[in-house]
Amino acid sequence: MEQDQTPSEKPGHPPAQAILHELRTAENSAAHLLPKLQSMKESNPHLTLLDVGAGSGTISVSFAKLIPDGHVTGIDLNPNILPRARAVAEMAGVKNIEFLQGTVYNLPFADETFDVTFCHQVLIHIGTPWDALREMLRVTKRGGIVAAREGDYETECVWPELPKLRCFHQLMAGLMSAGGGTPTAGRELLSWALKAGAERRQIELSYSTSSYHTTSERKVCSQGLCDQLRVGSLREKALKFGLGTENDFEEMAKAWEEWAKRDDACLAMLHGEILVQK
Amino acid sequence: MEQDQTPSEKPGHPPAQAILHELRTAENSAAHLLPKLQSMKESNPHLTLLDVGAGSGTISVSFAKLIPDGHVTGIDLNPNILPRARAVAEMAGVKNIEFLQGTVYNLPFADETFDVTFCHQVLIHIGTPWDALREMLRVTKRGGIVAAREGDYETECVWPELPKLRCFHQLMAGLMSAGGGTPTAGRELLSWALKAGAERRQIELSYSTSSYHTTSERKVCSQGLCDQLRVGSLREKALKFGLGTENDFEEMAKAWEEWAKRDDACLAMLHGEILVQK
To answer: Boundaries of each Methyltransferase domain copy (chains A, B) (predicted)?
Structure first.
């Protein structure tokens, strides 16, 4: 059992809950921002970008590669993930980056510090996401951009509809709600930006999808979800909130293993995306 | 009241149920096919394309523009929509196109007739979509492509969550099921292609979204849905299946009007997409 391996103990290896997170890059998770980032870079190569809730830092690192003469700051509430993020940057040979501990509700930066402030799958997990967006707007320069992409967990599609996969969906939605989050973040993102003080004309809204369906994607996805169910922080939280038993989680893990073996299997979800022009 | 205006009587004007359908183009509804279509056109400018369930023909017409030296055939089960489709082609000045009546279960074409066979939001409405895909594969040449895009109605996201909009969602899902369709078509599309006889290695699966959220999109969307609720065939079918009363439909229409006025309003859905290489 590896339940006691916290990320800070093994910075060269992803923790169980991060296997899927570490597939994320700016290209697959911030595609709506990239054309704007490119045009901003052309007029100012020394862009500064803040990635809020950077986690293992794979998105931050790919941003840093896209603005080699700029600088990326990744910030995360969890101090234990920072060594892993720094290792990810080091393995990629990326130097124009730093990772700090901090909360999105009180970012440790002066007003108008960054050209671009970004977050991905952060607002979905927190109680007052409009306060987070207001804080992101505060630390962004005039003429800069606040960008966010948040899943809409209620749109998650799984095929085939194995009953235990349905239970897993309910478990994850329950965990999100128990932690104060909003499973319907994707559809609410625009309303949160307005509540944070942005005007509608400043906001560009779009949608995109994430999915797993090729043999290798199904394998990685199943492995990541099984690890979350068998070891790691998700399991601990679910037990703490009384959202299931160890036996339930094992049955869900077996269902994911069965799912991965099927040619007709797929998993997809819709995400909401905003660009706010400050 | 315009309930008795059938499309065949007014080919220059869209019927109530077609206002939203007529926003569809190859660019917004077949984007997953376009790169492949472009490369096929480069090696053979005289491509033939079949658009199954062409409806008002706006997608067919935009395909015809993309392959000006090729030819597009649009086919639809409903003979009353054909005059409208022909009018749409004529208004666009498109000549390399024809529209015919026919069913996807028994396409009136010899084996291996078309380079590309396409359908959009057709399989979601029918009882045995795998039979339709088998028939589409039959009329497609070896080396050709069968392409489909089908919504997953269970992923529809609406914000704000006005109660009557929730009722509308249930009405639409009920109508789909009552007609023998599958509201979860998007997630099942891959499994249907396998059931039709395609092998997994022949199938490319992807996902995309459709959405309405700008002021003008909300206006058009609300108008289209209100027309469906107040006049036209959707209302007639819903009454016939006992899925609501005239008063219910009026309340839903008023909710869509309220929705359209709100800055924070949005409507989005996930679609499944396949390309099958024959």
So the answer is: 45-154
Contact B264 A186 (CB under 8 A): no
Residue among B154, B208, B263 minimizing CB distance to A200: B263
Asked if B101 and B77 count as a contact pair (C-beta separation under 8 A), the reply is yes
SS3 call for B177: helix
A130 touches chain B (CB under 8 A): no
Is the CATH number of domain A7-277 3.40.50.300?
A: no
Backbone angles phi, psi at B25, to 5 degrees: -135, 170
**pLDDT confidence of residue A19:** 76
A92 token code pair: 């990629």
**Does the CB of B22 have a partner CB in chain A at under 8 Å?**
no
Distance from CA of B261 to the nearest CA of A (A): 13
Substitution target in A162, A192, A207 with the highest count of B β-carbons within 10 Å is A207
* Residue B46 identity (one-letter amino acid): H
User: Helix (H, G, I), strand (E, B), or coil: what is residue B32?
Assistant: coil
Structure-token match 């995360």, residue found = A76
**A95-116 residue pLDDT tens:** 999 999 999 999 999 999 999 9
Q: Residue B276: helix, strand or coil by DSSP?
A: strand
DSSP code string of A119-143: EES-GGGSS-HHHHHHHHHHTEEEE
- Total Cβ atoms within 10 A of residue A3: 12
B68-89 pLDDT tens trace? 999 999 999 999 999 999 999 9
Q: Do B270 and A159 touch (CB under 8 A)?
A: no
ipTM, 2 decimals? 0.91
Structure tokens given for A66: 């896209």
Distances (CA, A) of A180 to A50, A129, A183, A185, A195: 24, 10, 10, 12, 18
**CA dist list (Å): A75 to A50, A66, A80, A244:** 8, 18, 12, 32
φ, ψ of residue B264 to 5 degrees: the values are -95, 10
A157 touches chain B (CB under 8 A): yes
Cβ separation of B187 and A270 shorter than 8 Å? Answer: no
Q: Which two tokens stand for residue B29?
A: 């509804």
Using the Cβ of B270 and the Cβ atoms of chain A, whether some distance falls under 8 Å is answered with yes
Instruction: Please report, for chain B, the start and end positions of each structural domain, with discontinuous segments joined by +.
Output: 7-277
CB within 8 Å: A188 and B159: yes
Contact B186 A155 (CB under 8 A): no
Predicted local confidence at residue B152, as pLDDT: 98
